[in-house]
Write a structure and sequence with these properties.
single chain; 90 residues; alpha+beta; 4 strands
């Protein structure tokens, strides 16, 4: 399993989750866990996904999700699990 952490942050608008999840489904990326909150009009979502079934490389996926985020007014970032773990360990 190839886990990736995806974060989505920005002003809350209709369809953010739908657009991100549609991209993931179309690219055979399975959502393993998801958490989202809205605080004073700001949307925050963190997803753990399995990219093992994806045909694209990680860089292409990250670039396309970033472009998707730009088109819907949010910031989307992707990190491989091992890098995320190393950055956040104490």
């Amino acid at each position: 399993m190839e886990k990736t952490i995806i974060t989505v942050v920005g002003k809350d608008t209709v369809g953010i989750i739908a657009r991100v999840c549609t991209y993931l489904a179309e690219n055979h990326i399975n959502i393993l866990d998801i958490s989202q909150t809205i605080v004073q009009g700001f949307f925050n979502m963190m997803m753990i996904v399995d990219t093992n079934g994806m045909e694209k490389n990680f860089g292409q996926m990250a670039q396309e999700l970033h472009a998707l985020g730009d088109s819907i007014g949010v910031d989307i970032k992707c990190q491989k699990e091992e890098i995320f773990d190393k950055m956040h360990r104490i």
